[in-house]
Queue: 4 jobs
Job 1
Amino acid sequence: MTTKEKRQHYRINSQNLLNYACYDDENNLVKQGMGRTLNVSEVGIRLETHVELEAGSRVEVTIGLEEELVTVEGKIVYIKPGQEGKFEAGIQFFELDQNTGNVLQQYIKAFRERDNQ
């Protein structure tokens, strides 16, 4: 028996290092560091970090995708314990500019094609 994917956007399993910066409601920097993506979609990422981030915080992430570096802003919609004492944060992107959206779409397309071979 197969299960139907309920997610609206395709997610690719992708492990890329990235830089993140978290801000509070007054736009003060509260945490920054390195993490890695666990998966990427057109609307968000799942981020693995060594520190617990706060759900609801605004975050900027700079991701290396292929030969491109893109910086996107989003909101941490959930945080949960990960493996080996790490944490996983679900980040929903705010509106992307056209260039960043195009880079993400090309990246996802390339992984889909690779997975279908």
Job 2
Amino acid sequence: MIVLQLILYCALFTLMVKIAVGNNALNGLYFYPEPVQEKVFQLGLTDREKAARKRKQFMIPFFLIMGASLVMIIGLWNGIHQFRPAYWQALLFLEVMNWYDGIVIDRLWVGHSRFWVIPGTEEIPFVQTWLQVLKKRTILSLIWLAGAALTAGIVVLLF
């Protein structure tokens, strides 16, 4: 059952990214490294304010929906009401999501799809190297130790 839940959780993650960008990679400009963003601004394809607004329009609902769905999976679907098991389950989901994002989303989807190439920025690398993925995901793994504790605390309070 937990494997199915992890698959559904990662599918929700992917769906939210796809909805955010729609059919235009510029809608997800905030995902790109700074040199790509600067080039896009220079080319006049969008401006900083619009990119910042789109980032906020994505990130706030993203964190709320992913957080709420994780709390519901643990507390409602799995019926966990104690901190320790809720913590370990939250940590599992957050770490799988973290590495899924780095490997499947960043390296595979973004790295192998022409969709993510913004015209006029083709010469600027925008896909993270394996070393960058490893470094970023390791740091986020440490951050998710605290995120799992927060999630488990919410589960215990609500259920």
Job 3
Amino acid sequence: MAETTNSWTDERLEKLRKLWDEGLSISQIGKSLGVSRNAIAGKAHRMELPKRPSPIAKNKAENKEPVKTAMPKRDLPLRLELRQLEWSRSKCCWPSGDPKHNGFSFCGATIVPGKPYCLVHCQEAYTTSRENR
């Protein structure tokens, strides 16, 4: 007896759960059950099956491998050199040099928690008028 594609029998639901647990893609499960991938996605959501990471996000993450070039920075035009600056919220962002000239960089030391600078640069940045007298 042929199954109708729009009825979710207990047997078909069990097969969906089994294929989901095996890690088949939504499209593969849909093909196996004779329904669209959207039907599988909707049913999986209503069945509260565990979510899976997006294959698109996974591919993007795999392709984010940093590419290092052997070319020295000083040979690059300024606009290209500035693009290669490494910046992080966990590193001191005290500027070193003139951003209009090659050789510009950030300190890069570990920051004081809650501040954008390392201890040395915090002492320089956060002064009171009494200290300057």
Job 4
Amino acid sequence: MNSSIKTLDEIVEIRKNLKQQNKKVVFTNGVFDILHAGHVDYLTKAKEKGDVLIIALNSDSSVRKIKGELRPIVPQHERAFIIASLKPVDYVLLFDEETPYEVIKKIVPDVLVKGADWAIENIVGRDIVEANGGSVETIQFVNNQSTTNIVQIVLERFNK
């Protein structure tokens, strides 16, 4: 397993140390099911907003709650390994809830990032981050890629 994949308790300890070193911690979350260029672009831009990028990855059970029984396509241990192996990503943790609210509450990142498809006032954890002097930012997607779109293309091409 990749040494960048941690438990929440380990991330909380790492966060304490990073705070003492005055490192700016950036946090985002997501499913990251079938990795595509849009994901890599998003994570690269997120990392530019601070010193350390922490990704909370929805567990398989969490994904099923959000996306339905047919998802995820790629199991959580593989998704975690892939995301943790990307250059901009420093740490990955899995979470089982539908939202990362409790994770954000424990980590209290300096910068909370989501895609620009989210209105800032609807971003989960915004209250915690802003109350602690942090910022909440969105990143514009550069293309229309998504796992859903990729699955649709595969179905169209192979159902002929």
